[in-house]
Amino acid sequence: MHGESLNPTTATSADPGAPVERLCAHLDAEVAALEALEALLRDEASALRRMDADGVLAITDQKVRLLERHQLLAAERMAVLQAVAPEARTVGQARAQVDAAGSAALAERQERLRALTAAIGDQQRLNTVFARAARELVQGRLKVVERAHAGARTVYGADARIQTGVPRRGVDRRG
User: Fold this and answer.
1) How far apart are the C-alpha atoms of 128 and 7, rounded to whole Å?
2) CB distance 15 to 4 below 8 Å
3) pTM across the whole model
4) I want to staple 157 with a disulfide (CB 3.0 to 4.6 A). Which of 67, 124, 163, 175 is the partner?
5) ∠52-54-60 over CA atoms, to 5°?
6) pLDDT tens digits for the chain (175 residues)?
7) Which residues contact 117 (CB under 8 A, 6 or more apart)?
8) Which of 126, 127, 91, 131 is nearest to 111 (CA)?
9) Partners of 163 in the β-ladder
10) How many helices (H) and strands (E) in the chain?
């Protein structure tokens, strides 16, 4: 072993495995951010089903922050990839440049990221359906209320006088 560290926390930049370990740590941070987003989307679905507007608004703020965090991590990934394999543009390309153990570690994280992004996409589509259904329900209820109160009304006319009756739907062009 000649003084080489097997402990990933004490690896140095002279250690050829250190860039792979840094990439693994970076991908772990991305996984954590996406896991938090996935959990938040499940909470959003629950709030949407309950039609909890305040809850949905609070979750939306949190979702924006998590998405910004993920975008930052995804942008930083390129620099970390370059340390592993300068010509690599994807984790898959970096895997082809490292030893079997490094490739296996990267593959595990890559698969977890794929699974999370698929689950997040599915949950977001479901939340969109819940939101549309809630909006349609509210709009339908508003139409019922509008119809119930569509009878006689007191309104101001064009001459600024109060008029009582059913408002006209069109312009009366009779002379």
Assistant:
1) 45
2) yes
3) 0.69
4) 163
5) 100
6) 333 333 333 333 456 569 999 999 999 999 999 999 999 999 999 999 898 989 999 999 999 999 999 999 999 999 999 999 999 999 999 999 999 999 999 999 999 999 999 999 999 999 999 888 888 888 888 777 777 766 555 566 667 777 665 555 555 555 5
7) 34
8) 91
9) 155
10) 4, 2
Amino acid (one-letter) located at 129: V
The tally of CA atoms less than 13 A away on the side-chain side of residue 16 is 6
Which single residue is written with the structure tokens 């690599």?
Answer: 88
How far is C-alpha 134 from the geometric centre of its chain's CA atoms?
19
State the residue for tokens 């991908």.
Answer: 27
Tokens of 74: 């995804």
